[in-house]
Recover the amino acids of this structure.
């Protein structure tokens, strides 16, 4: 039998999944970012559960208000990636003894702010005593089946595109955990990207309506990890021709002698959307995204060959499947679902 | 400001609720056992979240399989009390380091068994590392608005009825925690009532369809607590004329010089339904319950006066609002919802 320490989050989920009877005609397969239940009339009840745990998901300078808001945002981001409008949220709170009334108010306010930013409401929940701060959120929304963007539809020739630039949260986390120095304004912006994440909901909803997207995921586990997840689910590979590095992250990397490409690819807690789009529909997708005030940035192509490579400075590098996994310390940030 | 130790689960939920914007036209108010979202066409998406925490909800002799199954059953029981069929469940697992592959398999099997016993499926979830074992479940089901039994419809003159006899789990918990002695067979039955709870789902669904029920709740927090919750939500009181004590619980009380009425009223973790029914519809409700193989037992009446009294041995006693509350040790068992 495997010893406990070698069981990673992914393995645990695999073991649990193996014990579960499959719902007949499951509208969305295990392993995508959301689950669903048929409501009839081509409509699905879409559900997502994601758990924030204080000691693994909350940097030390993050307030309770920010942690509660983040717990909501990370769930909403998965709905964004699937093009589903979140309607209502259920909250399960594990609270350590010793929290004050003001602490609890902060948590309540953070939850509400997170939900209202995306036009959703907290409608119920539960609380219990726990050793860690635990905020488990379940999001519900109803959606037409054909508007939902899954992970498994990418086809060779499709364009890979992202909704923003990367590297800021990786830089921000490094500033917070390794106390690296930067000019005040940049430092604040980078830290802020960690403490105040945003989900690309209006972009995801607009893209879902275009029917132009063949596969989608959010980048909460890092750009590299997201590409690997789409590749695995769609049985394809990628050639990336453009490294979408944020300017401030670039500056941070230069000041601290770090590789900006590493920050871009292997960060995490960054809630951009990573999408594959049929070439002929790219303009439509670009327009829909632009209408929400965001720029869709093509960064490469889907390939039949199942490698994920990046062409960079006239060299080809392999993009590794690197991400953090709970229960393991040798990986950096990955969020997985049953 | 109140000091942490005085903040009970109920107060915490009140504080959180006070920070939340209310969803417009919320179909089920805060404080009932489930929450809901309008789906149009008189249909509601019904949701329930309940969290099992190892150290407060799992007696020491309960296996991981039983704990996982119980986490499902306690959620299903709330759907039973509302007359809503559960369709799909999402699971959020907080797992301590050190669990083996076999432990995780047990948890997965327990979750699946619990769901399949009630014809529902686990369709997704999340896992993270936590200091305690935490199993937070969210149940989803769609239901017609008029079939849902709420807490707030009891009217003076209505009959109070229950779906079974009480006291077994209180006795079983006492055997487990205080190591009290009983003949083997009775001892096993009483312990089993704690380790292998059942939700009255088919009874609840049948009763929901009769439209005879004016208010309903499960008795997971004890019969006394359930009566108080309906009384509070419906602005009524009760006169109880019959103490529905289980025979084995009675025997246990006699052998151990305990008050059987105390065991009956102030137990908990007992998943019977407590209902109020219009007098003229009682036969209909009895028949619907009998058709599921269960006996509906009238125990008293709803009163205009807001006390909850029990007539017993020609004396009248007050039924106290006693229940256990997490974060507090001076109360016995209460499960509350946001």
């Amino acid at each position: 039998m495997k010893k406990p320490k070698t069981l990673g989050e992914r393995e645990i989920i695999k073991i649990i999944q193996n014990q579960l009877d499959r719902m007949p005609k499951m509208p969305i397969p295990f392993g995508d970012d959301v689950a669903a239940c048929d409501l009839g009339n081509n409509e699905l009840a879409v559900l997502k559960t994601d758990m924030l745990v204080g000691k693994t998901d909350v940097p030390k300078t993050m307030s309770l208000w920010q942690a509660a808001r983040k717990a909501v945002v990370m769930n909403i981001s998965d709905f964004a990636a699937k093009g589903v409008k979140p309607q209502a949220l259920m909250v399960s709170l594990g609270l350590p003894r010793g929290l004050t009334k003001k602490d609890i108010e902060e948590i309540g306010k953070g939850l509400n702010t997170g939900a209202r930013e995306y036009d959703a409401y907290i409608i119920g929940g539960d609380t219990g005593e726990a050793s860690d701060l635990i905020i488990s959120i379940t999001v519900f929304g109803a959606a037409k089946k054909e508007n939902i963007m899954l992970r498994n539809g990418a086809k060779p020739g499709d364009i890979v595109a992202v909704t923003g630039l990367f590297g800021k949260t990786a830089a921000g986390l490094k500033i917070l955990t390794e106390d690296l120095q930067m000019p005040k304004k940049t430092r604040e912006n980078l830290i802020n990207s960690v403490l105040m994440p945003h989900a690309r909901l209006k972009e995801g909803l607009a893209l879902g309506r275009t029917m132009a997207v063949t596969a989608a995921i959010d980048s909460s586990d890092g750009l590299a990890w997201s590409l690997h997840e789409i590749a695995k689910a769609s049985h394809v590979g990628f050639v990336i021709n453009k490294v979408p590095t944020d300017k401030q992250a670039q500056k941070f990397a230069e000041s601290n002698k770090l590789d900006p490409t590493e920050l871009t690819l292997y960060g995490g807690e960054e809630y951009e959307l990573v999408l594959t789009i049929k070439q002929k529909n790219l303009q439509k997708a670009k327009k829909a995204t632009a209408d929400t005030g965001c720029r869709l940035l093509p960064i490469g192509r889907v390939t039949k060959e199942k490698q994920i490579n990046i062409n960079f400075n006239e060299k080809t590098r392999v993009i590794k499947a690197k991400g953090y996994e709970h229960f393991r310390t040798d990986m950096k940030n990955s969020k997985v679902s049953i």
Notes: Chain A touches chain B through 82 residues (CB under 8 Å). The mean pLDDT of chain A is 92. The two ends of chain A are 22 Å apart (CA to CA). Residues 159-334 of chain A form a domain with the Phosphoribosyl-aminoimidazole Synthetase; Chain A, domain 2 fold (CATH 3.90.650.10).
